[in-house]
């Protein structure tokens, strides 16, 4: 049972990050491999300013980190266990209900 405020805050932070489809796509892309913002913007088909806002949110949530690479900055998951958590969460939700959608799926709130 979750009773410690920090446990609840951590889960809420993860939930807020997952509440946006673009941030979900970013996390899933970074689960596959670290990437540069320009490559992520192209892969996701979104503008770089919009991508930057979502990456900043994920960074502020503590889910992604930046890694300097010469004059460029690469993004990656803050911990490899986040990739496993995403896989496990997706599998668990699919196993429970496959025909449900969230009424707030189009929401663009940030952390």
From TrEMBL:
The keyword Metal-binding applies. Pfam families: HTH_5 (PF01022). Keywords: Cadmium, DNA-binding, Metal-binding, Transcription, Transcription regulation. One of its GO terms (biological process) is response to lead ion. The keyword Glycoprotein does not apply. SMART domains: HTH_ARSR. It comes from the Bacteria. Residues 3-97 form the HTH arsR-type domain. PROSITE patterns: HTH_ARSR_2 (PS50987). GO terms for molecular function: cadmium ion sensor activity; DNA binding; DNA-binding transcription factor activity; lead ion binding. InterPro entries: ArsR-like_HTH (IPR011991), HTH_ArsR_DNA-bd_dom (IPR001845), HTH_Metal-responsive_Reg (IPR052543), WH-like_DNA-bd_sf (IPR036388), WH_DNA-bd_sf (IPR036390). Homodimer. Metal-responsive transcriptional repressor for the cmt operon. Binding of cadmium or lead causes the repressor to dissociate from the DNA. This is HTH-type transcriptional regulator CmtR.
């Amino acid at each position: 049972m979750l009773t410690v405020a920090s446990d609840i805050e951590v889960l809420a932070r993860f939930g807020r990050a997952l509440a946006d489809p673009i941030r979900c796509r970013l996390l899933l892309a970074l689960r596959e491999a670290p990437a540069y913002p320009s490559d992520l913007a192209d892969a996701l088909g979104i503008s770089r300013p919009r991508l930057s806002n979502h990456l900043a949110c994920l960074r502020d949530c503590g889910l992604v980190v930046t890694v300097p690479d010469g004059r460029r900055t690469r993004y990656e998951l803050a911990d490899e266990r986040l990739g496993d958590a995403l896989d496990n969460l997706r599998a668990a939700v699919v196993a429970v209900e496959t025909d449900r959608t969230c009424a707030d799926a189009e929401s663009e709130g940030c952390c």
